[in-house]
Amino acid sequence: MMISEHYKQQLIKEAKQIDVSLGKASEFEKLVQEITDGQMDKAILELIKNLGILTKKQSLPGMEKKQEKIIEILYKYLGSSKVDGLFQELKESSNVSLDELLNQLDELVGLENVKQQVRDLIVYNQIQQLRVENGLKKSDKTLHMAFLGNPGTAKTTVARIVGRMYKAIGLLSKGHFIEASRTDLIAEYQGQTAIKVKRLINRAKGGVLFIDEAYSITENDQSDSYGRESLTELTKALEDYRDDLVVIVAGYTSLMDQFFESNPGLNSRFNTFISFNDYSLDELVRIFHYICNRNDYVAEDKATEAVRDLLQKKLNEKEEYFSNGRLVRNLFDTITLNQSKRLSKLKEHIPKESLMLITNEDVPQND
Question: What's a Gene Ontology MF term here (predicted)?
Fold first, then answer.
């Protein structure tokens, strides 16, 4: 990435001004210097955390504007995806009680077998920790998992919750979540892939590294030397950091089965396999209402019936790789677009209730 000297100088200038306002104990300029010197993630997280504390205090006039200014420059200097990812990491590293996280798990539609397996894992690991505290041996099973199933079955959501649960019971030091794909694990040039994987592992240590469609790492089979290099480095990390890292690989069941069969060294390092089944019709309708509620929409009864009929048709026609919640989300997007087009034709004032209401007319009839 091309480093912008202009934004670098702006960052340093704003940090200096905050330090001057706060006095000797403030170290905003030092953190910014670490960021611009390439000591990225830890310094950025510390800077974001300190800016948040600063805003809460609001002890000095104009401090909130200074905070907004430095965040704005940070976005320009590093890019939104980098800063947003670290904001999310900071949020996920915060302390949340196990009970609260179990409630979040229970609120997910369906997935009863998944919920039970996760609860069993929590109980099992709590007892293992208790054994250690009493001088007894604990199991040598790893924390790594494989999530098997079609897209749109909340695999990513459950992975996030698991990481935070493991932090809550003391298995992980941070509990944050890093999502990766083939492009994050494989470099363009010979010899760079191992370095790329090591950097990713360092970011994920203390939390969860979630690799979706893990089989794509070696999608070209034996000819994919970069993929093999990535897998070798990843397999090593699974063992080296097993006490403070959870790697969750995910993807279609049949392809994941093939992936493990062709990589026996990997298979032995994953002790937990969780199947995410396709949703039933009732569960898909519940997901539709959940999405509506989250976005301030309400579907009238006739609209719900039309959605149910449409989803039943999709289920009747479904192939091996059914998209589940993703299908419902796409349907919701189509319906709200249709609602917008319908409302735009009205000449009179549109009340709040009408802006929220989804009617039968908004549901695609011949999809």
Answer: ATP hydrolysis activity
* Rounded Cα distance, 77 and 73, in Å: 6
- Burial of residue 352 (CB within 10 Å: 0-12, 13-18, 19+) is exposed
**Token output for 235:** 């397999």
Q: Do 244 and 104 reside in the same domain of the chain?
A: yes
DSSP sequence for 144-184: -EEEEE-TTSSHHHHHHHHHHHHHHTTSSSS--EEEE-HHH
- The structural domain count of the chain equals 3
Q: What is the DSSP string of 306-344?
A: HHHHHHHHHHHH--SS--THHHHHHHHHHHHHHHHHHHH
The span from the first CA to the last CA of the chain, in angstroms, equals: 44
What's the mean pLDDT when you consider all of the chain? 82
Give residue 27's domain range: 5-93
Beta pairing class for 177-180 and 208-212: parallel
Is 55 inside any structural domain? yes
pTM, rounded to two decimals? 0.74
d(CA 61, CA 83): 26
Measured between alpha carbons, how far is 219 from 255 in angstroms, rounded to an integer? 10
Last residue of a domain, one of 243, 276, 309: 276
- Domain boundary residue, one of 221, 254, 276: 276
- Residue 90 tokens, joined: 């900071």
pLDDT tens figures, 121-160: 999 999 999 999 999 988 888 899 999 999 999 999 999 9
DSSP 42-94: HHHHHHHHHHHHHHHH--STTHHHHHHHHHHHHHHHH-HHHHHHHHHHHHHHS
For 38-48, what is each residue's pLDDT tens digit? 545 555 555 55
